[in-house]
């Protein structure tokens, strides 16, 4: 049975503003290392999947960026959404396109903008997840073993050990949990059977389609209409005509929270979703004062700050716990505790019609 992969690459990375911008979002930036995040993602997958079996789903704005950054990716493997409808329609659309080429293949779904340090273990886990997905109608997800109480992630509660495979634990999922407050997140970490939701899923395309039919019938009907249209017209024209009718729904809520036979593989991978600027404290080396320093800076009595210069000298004196980021046209200064709220600046820029800074 063939293994395929779908990389979701349509996000705007707004919490990484002002470096992540509408025309060049986070997944196309070199956040860690000499390659962009999507290039690193594809490099990892090519350790065990041919590039011909890798698909990227994005929007029209980023299709050319993908072609430029991943020239070996077949052009037909770039799936373009005409409008964002969350992850369930995104995954559903990818599944019917993959079914045309690779009937009943195993399908790995993952975001384009994560950092994974232990690539060898990551591949071992994905291969194991594929094996589990081929047994019955199993849906499999990767759960990251939490290292601290994190309020920015959803959690997966496991119901206990179901099996061992390839030296890995396979747990049945009890439930998916929304992002908690700090007190609840602390309780989850102490409980030991809660894992961060990585947003990485593995299933057989045929099984996913059955679940969509049972749990999201409206979306199923639209996908069937598109499948018929693919044989009669240009694929992109059919998608442009039909996709906007899709319900806006996440795959977590639409399928994973309601389906049976869901399993989680606990992972320790050096994983990070780089969701906001504070992620740099986890992936970069800190100086003797706990700072992350990038670029041209002069820092005196500066502690626990994240500072990135794009060329101009950033000089700091006697400051603590700040994020300072300079780009060609924007300088961001905010408290680290407000890192998750940077989207409020995006909202205000839109209200003030300052789209040139987005």
Q: Can you describe this structure?
A:
By secondary structure, the chain is of the alpha/beta class. It has two domains: 3-272, Spore Coat Polysaccharide Biosynthesis Protein SpsA, Chain A (Alpha-Beta Complex); 277-357, no CATH class. It has helices at residues 37-45, 60-69, 87-101, 119-133, 182-191, 205-215, 217-230, 235-242, 251-256, 280-283, 343-351; strands spanning 3-8, 54-59, 78-81, 106-111, 115-116, 139-144, 155-165, 168-177, 194-204, 262-267, 271-272, 292-294, 297-300, 306-308, 314-317, 322-326, 331-335. The chain has a five-stranded mixed β-barrel with strand order 6-9-7-8-10. A four-stranded mixed sheet has the order 12-14-16-17, with no helix packed on it. The protein has a two-stranded antiparallel sheet with strand order 5-11. Helix 2 links the parallel strand 2 (54-59) and strand 3. The radius of gyration is 21 Å and the shape is globular. The protein starts with a strand and ends in a 7-residue tail after the last helix. 40% of the residues are buried.
């Amino acid at each position: 049975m063939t293994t395929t992969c779908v990389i979701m690459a349509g996000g705007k990375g707004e919490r990484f503003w002002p470096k992540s911008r509408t025309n060049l979002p986070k997944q196309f930036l070199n956040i860690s290392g000499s390659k962009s995040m999507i290039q690193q993602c594809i490099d990892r997958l090519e350790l065990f999947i041919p590039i011909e079996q890798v698909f990227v789903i994005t929007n029209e704005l980023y299709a050319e960026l993908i072609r430029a950054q991943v020239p070996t990716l077949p052009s037909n493997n770039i799936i373009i959404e005409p409008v964002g409808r969350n992850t369930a329609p995104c995954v559903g659309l990818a599944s019917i396109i993959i079914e045309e080429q690779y009937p009943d293949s195993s399908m790995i779904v993952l975001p384009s903008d994560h950092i994974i340090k232990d690539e060898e273990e990551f591949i071992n886990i994905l291969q194991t997840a594929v094996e589990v997905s081929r047994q019955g109608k199993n849906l499999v997800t990767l759960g990251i073993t939490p290292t601290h109480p994190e309020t920015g992630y959803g959690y997966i509660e496991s119901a206990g050990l179901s099996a061992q495979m390839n030296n890995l634990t396979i747990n049945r999922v009890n439930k998916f949990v929304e992002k908690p407050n700090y007190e609840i997140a602390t309780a989850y970490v102490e409980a030991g059977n809660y894992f961060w939701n990585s947003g990485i899923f593995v299933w057989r395309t045929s099984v996913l389609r059955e679940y969509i039919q049972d749990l999201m019938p409206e979306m199923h009907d639209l996908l069937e209409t598109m499948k018929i249209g693919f044989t009669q017209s240009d694929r992109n024209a059919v998608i442009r005509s039909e996709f906007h009718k899709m319900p806006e729904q996440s795959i977590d809520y639409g399928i994973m929270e309601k389906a049976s036979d869901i399993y989680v593989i606990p992972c320790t991978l050096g994983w990070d979703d780089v969701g906001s600027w504070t992620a740099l404290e986890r992936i970069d080396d800190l100086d003797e004062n706990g700072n992350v320093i990038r670029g041209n800076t002069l820092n005196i009595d500066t502690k626990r700050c994240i500072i990135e210069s794009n060329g101009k000298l950033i000089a700091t004196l006697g400051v603590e716990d700040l994020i300072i980021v300079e780009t060609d046209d924007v300088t961001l200064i905010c408290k680290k505790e407000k890192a998750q709220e940077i989207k409020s600046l995006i909202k205000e820029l839109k209200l003030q019609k300052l789209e040139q800074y987005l």
